[in-house]
Specification:
elongated, 4 strands, 2 domains, alpha+beta, Alpha-Beta Plaits, Arc Repressor Mutant, subunit A
């Protein structure tokens, strides 16, 4: 279970990315070495799975987010495995979730513009195995982007 200090460290690292341990330690009330040990324990414990930079998609030429709901012709283990393996081979597919409900999967795809999405649809999405139907929705504007998970902790008694 996470205590208050671990929770605060996770919040800081998730929101602002890697920072000097001395700076993090000062914020949470630990020495740099104690803070370093806590962060390593969080990494070893699987709470932190990596570090990345958040990029501005428009600055790198990917100003169009498209959400694609996909239904498969079969929900057999073989069909799901083949579809999921194919999805992983396309860098333009940013995310893929297996869903409950009307569709089997929801993809998030990055494209430069509508013409580029047409290219992706023809040369990427249409080649995914076992697809029975696809429904696409273009993101008009991001209201709230994902910036991390809410962190809760248990108070130690």
């Amino acid at each position: 279970m996470l205590d208050r200090i671990d929770s605060k460290l996770l919040e800081l690292l998730q929101r602002d990315g890697p920072r000097p341990t001395a700076e993090l330690g000062e914020i949470v009330g630990l020495s740099a070495s104690a803070c370093h040990r806590r962060i390593r324990a969080l990494e070893t414990g699987g709470y932190i799975t990596g570090y990345t930079a958040r990029l501005n998609p428009e600055r790198i030429g990917l100003g169009l987010d498209v959400f694609v709901d996909i239904s498969l012709t079969s929900q057999s283990e073989e069909a799901l495995t083949a579809f999921e393996a194919a999805v992983k081979s396309f860098d333009e597919i940013l995310e893929c979730q297996l869903l409950s409900g009307a569709s089997d999967y929801r993809l998030r795809v990055a494209a430069r513009n509508v013409a580029d999405f047409d290219r992706l649809h023809r040369h990427c999405l249409s080649r995914l195995p076992g697809v029975a139907s696809m429904h696409s929705a273009f993101a008009l504007r991001t209201i709230k982007a994902f910036e991390g998970y809410p962190i809760q902790h248990e108070e130690r008694r």
